[in-house]
Give the backbone structure.
Amino acid sequence: MSNSTKQDAVKLLDVFDPEMSGLLHREEKRQFETIGLIASENVVSPLASALEGSAFTNKNTEGYPGKRFVGGCQLADQAELLAIERVKKVFGAEHANIQSGNATIANMAVLTGLLKKGDTFLALELDNGGHLSHGAKFHYSGREFNALHYGVNKETERIDMDQIRQMALENKPKLIVTGASSYPRTIEYKAFREICDEVGAYFWVDCAHDCGLIAGGAIPSPVPYADVVTMSTQKTLRGPRGCGVILCRKELGQKIDRGVFPRLQGGPKGDMLAARGVLFQELLQPEFKEYAKQVCLNAKALASGCKDEGMRLITGGTDTHMVMLDVTPVIANGQEAETLLCSLGIITNKNMIPYDTLPPSLGSGLRIGSPTMTTRGAKEEEMYNIGRMLGRGLKNKDNPAVLDEIRQEVYKIATSHPMFSSEWVSPVIREEFEKMYCHQAY
Ligand SMILES: *Cc1c(COP(=O)(O)O)cnc(C)c1O
């Protein structure tokens, strides 16, 4: 189904299933009218998602190109191989697997592909910014393997390489993973590599959050140092949701591929293989480099707006798309901050901060980020003002007149931007793109 047929089908749904299509229209309106600051979200590129739900979705593609378990896969094979070739080029990787259904599955494929049940690995503590798939007690990764966790330094709030080296020497892990869900700084990949070499461990980097910045060259790449790198596609990479990418050294390729299929999954979604291919082609364009750079500039501006309203920046700032705030100087806790901001049309999420004294259900922090608003075309000055507005909102929680003013300002800013700014689209199709996508009317 082509994209326009997809839109036509929704028109039929307005008659056949107005309940569900009504929810869709309201969700579109909600996204357009609010300022999205969730660091793990973005607005998918309409081009990268054009193949989602296309005829490739009808195809069973169980197996790998040239080794499928069903017939008729010649074109699907070409689509998958093309996508793989492109993503290897983007990141300078030797081997790529693009079949996993999300980044968490990609992570499990790494663990089950490289380790045996009960093997020890080191990872960043969940409360200090790590991800649940890095060995949290309640997660498969923590039940199946012996996960030990390092933290961040209490003073600097940064990953502490001395602590990691110490733990590695004492525990001789089979693998060390770094990468985070709520950590606003770049990571010293070279130092990790040296520790891994010293103790004979695999080095795995999970850059699900900042992979787009790496692809665009805005921050350093782990690929030259790591044995294996995993990514999501829906965060800074600005691609469709429901994908994971695994890059690795050639000699580990077979172990990783078997980890994904047959160990964890059946057939991949054929339409998503093709959609990923378009995404990777977009990553190769100069416009994506500009985008990645702008995301980082915007996060810095957002951070300084928040700071100027009295909030504390975890680690003192940001190198990436993400800003971690301690909101307790201005409001009781993260949950209260999230709820209040949501009522103003600023969408964020509460978060734990390192060595948090509040329970996870409240949290002292707020995690915010710049990817979505950058996709919508916001620049530094506006991001700075958004930071100020956010802080002003929190400080005036009992002042309905000020809150009303902010609510109107948020609406004005949000609706002055398209969902996807045409500046990120190749000049070859920009004019046509503007006609098709940039005239929002909800
Ligand atoms: C978001 C995230 C993931 C999981 O991504 P999904 O595609 O939602 O499974 C994995 N690792 C890290 C560090 C993340 O932040």
About this structure: The pocket of pyridoxal-5'-phosphate is lined by residues 40, 102-104, 107, 131, 133, 179-181, 206, 208-209, 232, 244 (CB under 6 Å).
